[in-house]
Design goal:
about 450 residues, alpha/beta, five-stranded parallel beta sheet, three-stranded antiparallel beta sheet, 8 strands, globular
Length: about 450
């Protein structure tokens, strides 16, 4: 009788329990591996954009050529500090003023490349005060430079200018008792356009951008034409009242990381140095007297929010929250919590004492907490630069870049390759002997 195969259930019964267990474990392992690979692939695939957010652009290298027009009393010092720290971290040369210009590019004169210290050439970043002059900046900066500036609401800005420059601007000094209300009641009684620092008293934003701050606001063609020129040059006009949103747009424009735009507020006035512009009548007078600045601000404020909408309001808001959390972590690390603003006289580290424009204005700053007793450890470099005022940071950057320039000048010139004859030195020409006069 031929041999017949037993039924399947009989064959399984014939297998040992040990072999069945091994087969079961093998099946489970294979299933687990397939699930793991599927999850891994799903994690690596791009995530869909959040509702209202445009697709994220493809990653590109950080842009390192930036011209920041630092306008007056608009949070420009804080932006400058961000750019200085980025330049140091990425070894980017910053254009700095010649000694004759102090820490500004000979402001209020029109900017000239002659005002740049030779040890800071050729630059890729410029961020100190200057009066905008398009052709001179294009001569100085690389072709791929992105131009950025910042504006502030004219009422708050004028109050700050009036207080800060009260001892520099003759129009403000003439006012009895330093009264801003008295000045605005009749500005032309105090204002002299030909005086050196008169631009602090009238349409300062327009002046900083290179415009005619005394042009008649009744001319309907002037300001629209000027705005078109600004829009041709500047890729981003930030708004001081929406500083964090502005930094988000700046970070996106330059393809920088969130860590590159962390900050602490700098060059702030103490409470006793701030005026009160709660009166609607006074605010209206400021906007009327600075009518060109008011129209300029209103235009670019609207432009700013169109850019936010293009980026996705929800996306920008989410990045703002992330920026504030990151700033909070950095401040906790540097200051042990929320940094305490101090008068300059109470700041022990002289590198952190802000410049005081006059005895009537109190510019506050920060002091880093002391090191652990007995450790002798210096304050963390990153925290020191984060709180460093404009004047000290500008001088530090100039010393650092000057030292680098001198070292490069002392480097030996490369020798020609072997087998290549050196060029023959030309013999000095002999000049004919000039006979003595009889």
């Amino acid at each position: 009788m031929p041999y017949a195969l037993p039924p399947l259930h009989c064959a399984l019964k014939m297998m040992s329990r040990k072999k069945a267990l091994l087969l079961l474990l093998l099946a489970l392992s294979t299933l687990s591996l397939l699930i793991h690979q599927s999850t891994h692939l799903n994690c690596r695939s791009p995530k869909p954009s959040s509702p209202g957010c445009p697709p994220a652009p493809s990653p590109r290298p950080k842009h390192t050529s930036v011209a920041f027009l630092k306008t007056h009393k608009t949070a420009g010092t804080t932006v400058q500090n961000i750019l200085f720290r980025f330049a140091e971290q990425h070894d980017v040369t910053v254009a700095l003023p010649h000694h004759a210009c102090d820490h500004q590019f000979c402001y209020p004169r029109n900017f000239s490349a002659r005002f740049v210290h030779p040890h800071t050439l050729p630059p890729r970043i410029i961020a100190s005060h200057l009066r905008f002059q398009r052709q001179e900046l294009r001569r100085l900066m690389p072709n791929d430079t992105l131009y950025v500036t910042i504006l502030r609401e004219p009422v708050a800005m004028f109050e700050s200018l009036f207080t800060y420059y009260n001892q520099y601007c003759a129009a403000f000094k003439r006012v009895p008792n330093g009264s801003m209300e008295a000045f605005l009641a009749n500005p032309l009684a105090f204002y002299r356009p030909q005086e050196k620092f008169s631009m602090y008293a009238h349409n300062t934003l327009l002046y900083d951008l290179g415009g005619d701050n005394d042009h008649s606001p009744a001319d309907p063609a002037y300001l629209p034409g000027f705005i078109r020129q600004v829009e041709e040059v500047f890729s981003l006009v930030m708004i001081a009242e929406y500083f964090d949103e502005s930094l988000v747009l700046l970070r996106r424009l330059l393809s920088w990381d969130l860590e590159d735009v962390l900050y602490v507020k700098l060059n702030m006035r103490g409470p006793r140095s701030k005026g009160n512009v709660s009166s609607e009548v006074l605010a209206a007078r400021i906007r009327s007297w600075n009518g060109l600045d008011a129209q300029l601000y209103d235009h670019f404020n609207a432009t700013f929010w169109r850019k936010v909408a293009q980026a996705g309001r929800g996306c920008v808001a989410a990045e703002v929250r992330a920026l504030r959390r990151a700033c909070h972590r950095l401040l906790r690390r540097c200051f042990g919590g929320r940094p305490q603003l101090r008068p300059a006289t109470q700041i022990k580290n002289k590198e952190l004492r802000p410049w005081q424009p006059s005895s009537k204005v109190d510019i506050v700053g920060y002091d880093l907490p002391p090191a652990v007793p007995g450790s002798g450890a210096p304050p963390e470099e990153r925290c020191l630069k984060l709180a460093m005022p404009e004047v000290q940071y500008s001088r530090y950057m100039l010393r650092k870049q000057s030292l680098r320039a001198r070292r490069r000048a002392l480097l030996p010139r490369p020798l020609p390759p072997r087998g290549v004859p050196r060029p023959a030195r030309a013999l000095p020409r002999r000049h004919p002997t000039v006979p003595k006069a009889a």
